[in-house]
Amino acid sequence: MYTIDEAFEILSKNKLTSHKETVRNWVRKGVIKAEPLESRKKGYRISEAALEQFIKERMPDGWEMYPESVTGDVRDVVKNEEETPYHVEVDVEAIKEQGRIEMWHQVAGRWLWEGHLDITRTMVRHAIEHRGHTKKFEKFVWERCLKDSAPRKKPRVLYLVDAFLFEEERVPFDQDFGIKEEQIMQALIEHVRLRKRSGMYKDESGSR
Q: Which residues lie below 8 Å from residue 114, measured CB to CB, with a gap of 6+?
């Protein structure tokens, strides 16, 4: 049986969440099956089977928790990827990453966000200046932020683990930056730039 802290360590190591409070929310809402102790104030206990089921449900179809193709103790293989054969390491990481993405969409679909970032015009300006883009593009990005958050007057993005929701898409943080605000803003700028370059905004009235 795992405590909340122990379950968080396992989930965070596999990059399924970065906040212990998220695990508590999943337990309270029944996303992760758990048994309360004498009272809920004293905490919960999560069985190994329940935690494994939670992880397995978020892996791609056809993925087995402990595939027969991997020799030795599979739990150790997954936890110590640097010690595994090259082809196994690549396969495990690719499958885990796909599982994280699917899990992200499932949790986001239930509106279980970790937090949000309010976006200001100054934040957009600083991110634009860092990348050396034009004032015209800065205005365009700000218009996209306003439109994405409508009818709210102040734009914001909702985030979960290492990605945020913008224009109905999952946008991963820019991990080249150390501060979450910069990780989000720089990723947002690049997201808009790529969509604009590909012509995805041309059919929208008022877009240039």
A: 17, 18, 19, 21, 22, 159, 160, 161
